[in-house]
Design brief:
This protein is α+β, with helices and mostly antiparallel strands. The protein contains three helices and two strands; from the N terminus they run E-H-E-H-H. Strand 1, helix 1 and strand 2 form a beta-alpha-beta unit.
């Protein structure tokens, strides 16, 4: 399994957008069982918050559900657990 971690400042806009669009792409290509995809933040100011309303609106318009996503901060263990960051 290939593990990919998308990272941005707060983990409420850019990295969740990348996470969920990539997950959707992999699902449509029937490759989602080959990957583990997550996203996280470099800062702690948004930790625990849901995806930004603007990002959520775009994903909703694409038919992609991100309602379970909550921002989390990158941790040292991520550098060992993920193949691509």
């Amino acid at each position: 399994m290939i593990k990919v971690l998308f990272v941005c400042h707060g983990n409420i806009c850019r990295s969740p957008m990348a996470e969920f669009i990539f997950k959707d792409y992999l699902k449509k290509k029937k490759m989602d069982d080959l990957f583990h995809i997550e996203s996280c933040a470099t800062s702690s100011e948004e930790i625990g918050n849901p995806v930004h309303y603007g990002t959520k609106r775009i994903l909703d318009n694409l038919g992609i559900d991100c309602s379970s996503k909550r921002a989390r901060k990158i941790k040292q263990q991520d550098f060992f657990d993920f193949d691509y960051i």
